[in-house]
Amino acid sequence: MAVSYYYARAALALALGCALAAAAAAQSQWVRAHATFYGGADASGTMGGACGYGNLFAQGYGTRTTALSTVLFANGASCGQCYKLVCDRKFERTWCKPGVSVTVTATNFCPPNWELPDGGWCNTVRAHFDMAQPAWEKIGVASRGIIPVIYKRVSCVKKGGVRFTVNGHDYFNLVLVTNVAGPGSIRAMDVRGSADWMAMARNWGANWHSLTYLNGQGLSFRVTVTDGQSIVFAKRRAA
């Protein structure tokens, strides 16, 4: 019988500092897209998702979240990014709420619907946002179901610092990174135990893994966000 040694579940709240928040890679130009909604009026149906954040309320993301189409999701590389959306009244005045915007965090993937000839709104080439219903209703009238929007990527404002949730055993360590301010998304990640830095690989969404035996070692993480800035988080004991 195989015996597994599991890390204790951890959520390490570590301060990013002002430098990371100020270093966000934000686009200056507005881009046109469309937006739908899902998850119900209380957003309960948005929990979990392809970024792996689990309970979005517990993780601090709340109801201001969105699923991204293939071209925006980028196989999980966009998890945690923030977008500002406005309903485009140039094309739809009846169903757009005037003078308002909403900022959402990417927490999920909106897959193509291949039962439709072109894959539907979330096909592989179209930029599309499938937003949590409460966020969508900030800019659109819910009885419509779909609205034209303009959007741009913006800096994420988060409170409480970056959190690392460590799970795994022996030679497999899975680390979920949440609550990242500034760029919001992670380009690369490294871990260091008692030896030198070792590169981690994106497992899925915002989860990164290491195949090195790290039991009982104090762990440091080096996170490189999508603007290229690297931040080191000092050692914490895994188990």
Automatic annotation (TrEMBL):
It comes from Digitaria exilis. The lineage of its organism: Eukaryota, Viridiplantae, Streptophyta, Embryophyta, Tracheophyta. Causes loosening and extension of plant cell walls by disrupting non-covalent bonding between cellulose microfibrils and matrix glucans. No enzymatic activity has been found. Its main location: secreted. Residues 1-26 form the signal peptide. It comes from the Eukaryota. Keywords: Cell wall, Cell wall biogenesis/degradation, Glycoprotein, Membrane, Secreted, Signal. It is a peripheral membrane protein. PROSITE patterns: EXPANSIN_CBD (PS50843), EXPANSIN_EG45 (PS50842). Residues 171-239 form the Expansin-like CBD domain. It is found in: Secreted, Cell wall; Membrane. GO terms for cellular component: extracellular region; membrane. One of its GO terms (biological process) is plant-type cell wall organization. This is Expansin. Belongs to the expansin family. Expansin A subfamily. Residues 48-161 form the Expansin-like EG45 domain.
